[in-house]
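Record Plasma intrinsic protein PIP1.1, 290 aa.
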Amino acid sequence: MEGKEEDVRLGANKYSERQPLGTAAQSQDDNGKDYSEPPPAPLFEPSELSSWSFYRAGIAEFIATFLFLYISVMTVMGVVKAPSKCQTVGIQGIAWAFGGMIFALVYCTAGISGGHINPAVTFGLFLARKLSLTRAIYYMVMQCLGAICGAGVVKGFMGGPQYQLLNGGANFVANGYTKGDGLGAEIVGTFVLVYTVFSATDAKRSARDSHVPILAPLPIGFAVFLVHLATIPITGTGINPARSLGAAIIFNKDRAWDDHWIFWVGPFIGAALAALYHVVVIRAIPFKSK
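=>
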């Protein structure tokens, strides 16, 4: 019993080096640096599967993505439903709903799961060896399930016919833009988000700014807000495959599925580019002497 209590007490801190969205400063190492470079996560880590912290992290990702879809898609529904945008929060309000929820949810879940809430973020951190493949796949599955449930609750509140009439908050390329435009917007938008995640959670920055415990969630949420302002007119802004999948499954119309590949390919390319840029250019990790 004592062992179980200890595991629950440690929680995600048991694998703190692989959950980079925490904001606690790293301690000094033997060389006198004010931070320590986290070791690369192993590709497979079987010991995770026997830890309660592993499963509670997935549950946290599920609940966070569920709440994210519920608030954000409900906001989209309200704007689309209104006869005049002047009677609603408008595009700026939608952007604030997405960015504000990410800010709040990253703040709430960073110490448990790392606060990814997005398969593209998880994918980028996996490429940078910040978490194992086992954890990455588990997170992505839980994120997608949470998104589907969140979109389903929105449909239940709005009513089936009205939900379908309002396009269910699904992502698709807007009229006047090509699929290439949509793909490019998703790549650049996700790059901005994942680049911000890496920068806001960098070991050096965490050590330097440890007196500001809210630092990491704030720029991440603000990045989501700004990307939405720029790309809502083009794709409705995906930059999160789970968000796009949940809305598409519940909406389930050809218009959403025709463009759906864009909202997986674009974010994954953007996340990969951001991971490469951070590791090779910003931190120059491959060139550091061992």
